[in-house]
Amino acid sequence: MLNRPTAGNSLSLDLVSELRAKFAALAAREDIKVIILSGAGGRIFCAGHDLNEFSGQEDQDFLARDFAGLAGLMQDIMDQPQIVIALVEGVATAAGCELVAACDLALASSVARFAVPGINIGFWCHTPQIQLTRAVGRKQAMMMLATGRLFPAAHALQIGLINAVHDPDDLEEAVDALATEIASKSGRVLRLGKKSFRAQAEMPVPEAYRFAQSEALANLQLDDAREGISAFLEKRPARWPGESN
C-alpha cells in the first residue's frame, strides 16, 4: 500500500525505496501469486512525484537519484514475477497514473480520476509517458499529456488504462475476486506467462512468434501443463504440482 495519505500518497524518494524493497522481498515468494497495490486514505491513489522534494532543489545528484528510483520502480513492477493489480479508489496523477499503467491489471472506482498534468505547471510528464504510451497508444497518451486534463474512470476504461470500473462500495470485493481467480491458476505458469507476455510485447511480430513457439514448447514439458490438460480432459479441478490446492 502507498501509505502517505496526508501527502497524497506522493512518491517521495524514501517511499519509492520502500516500495522497491517490498517488491524485491516478495519476488522470491512462490506462494504469493498476486500483489494488490492500493493507496491509503482512498481519496487519492497517488499524486505522483512529491513536488516538495523538487521545490528549490538544486542538487542534481538528488534529482537524478529520484528519477532513477522511480524508473526502477516501474520496471520492478513489470519484472515482478507475481501479477500486480492496481486498486484505484481515487485520483491518480502524473507518476501515480504511470504507476497504474505499469501494473499488469487495474480496477478503479467510478469516482477515480486520471491525469498526467505536468504541462499545467510547465513540466512535461517525461517519464509517465513511457508507460502511458505503451498502455493506451500514442494518440490517447498525447491527448492526456498535451492537455493535462483530469479524465474520469469511464474514459480510462475506454482507452485501456484500466480493466474495469466499479461502484466505490464494490471495488475491494471486485479486486479480491479477481485476485482469487488468478491465484487459482498455476503459480509457475503465471510467472512464466507474465515474463513471456512482457518480452513478446517489445518484439517485432516475426520474432515474437519464434519466441512464443519456443516458450510454448518449454511450457508443455512442465508438470503443470500435463496436470492441467489431464484435469481438463477428465473434467476435474487441476491439482497444481507443489501447491496446496
Question: Can you walk through the features of this model?
Answer:
The protein is an alpha/beta fold and 245 residues long. The protein contains ten helices and eight strands. The protein has helices at 13-27, 60-79, 95-102, 128-136, 138-147, 153-159, 171-183, 187-201, 205-220, 223-233, and strands spanning 34-38, 44-46, 83-88, 91-93, 105-109, 113-115, 151-152, 164-166. The strands form two sheets. It has a four-stranded parallel sheet with strand order 1-3-5-8, sandwiched between helices. A four-stranded mixed sheet has the order 2-4-6-7. It is globular. The mean pLDDT is 95.
Short description:
Helices cover 51% and strands 12% of the residues.
What are the key terms here?
single chain, 245 residues, alpha/beta, 4-stranded parallel beta sheet
Shape: globular
- Strand arrangement within the widest β-sheet reads 1-3-5-8
Q: In DSSP terms, counting alpha (H) and pi (I) runs of 4 or more, how many helices?
A: 10
Sheet-strand content, in percent, reads 5-15%
